[in-house]
Amino acid sequence: MGWLKKRGSMRRIKDCERKCEENGFTAKEFIKKMGHEKIRFAMTGNGNKIIQLVDKPWADRWMVYYDAEVPHHRHWTYL
Amino acid sequence: MTKEGFPVLTAEEEMYLNEPYGGLFGNSVMAKVVEELVADPTMDYRPKYLVDVTGNSEGSISKVLKKLLKLGLIENKINSKHPVYRVRVESKKFAALSFLAYAMLDDREVSDCMNLAISDYYNSVLREDYEPQAIANSDNWVAQPGIVCEDESEYKTISASA
Prior knowledge:
heterodimer; A: 4 helices; B: alpha+beta; two-stranded antiparallel ribbon; 6 helices
């Protein structure tokens, strides 16, 4: 979510799918779970599929909750 | 809407798609790498990965990484045979670039992401240093003379040594 927000809130589907895979889930599954009113698929004029973050306030709250807005210390674990 | 039911981006929206920082710094290798790193500071980055996601050559990615290492935005991950880099989240440059990423979005979409991120950053990082904690202890309270009202009776002001 933070990744998408910091990339202008929209990104080619190929890039999003790659990022989701790195984190252990699929973009399609994530969008379905969160709801299309929050994050959705969209198209460019020439027919390329993208993913677009729609509900920014929701994304903000989500990121604050998970302390992911501007992480300032290495609070994640390396496996 | 497309026949699959997907909304179509406007020409203006498309202008910003895949442009690092909305095109503010052009589309240079440096801008692309910085945007990628700042967008996900949790990852360990190998040069090959950045070559793949940016579509730039190994040579140019390597140059950029050396420069960013010197500038302190990234650090080498120790105990690794191959070069692996990670973002120094303690760096102020990282925080500032995160705010900038949100600012680009806010100006375009009239959202409030940057202010919220700043407020969260203030609360979690700065508040402790900038707002001295007033811990009142009644044992140390003293009455201070000096303020007098019209009927010349003295008010007592109370101060606490915090």
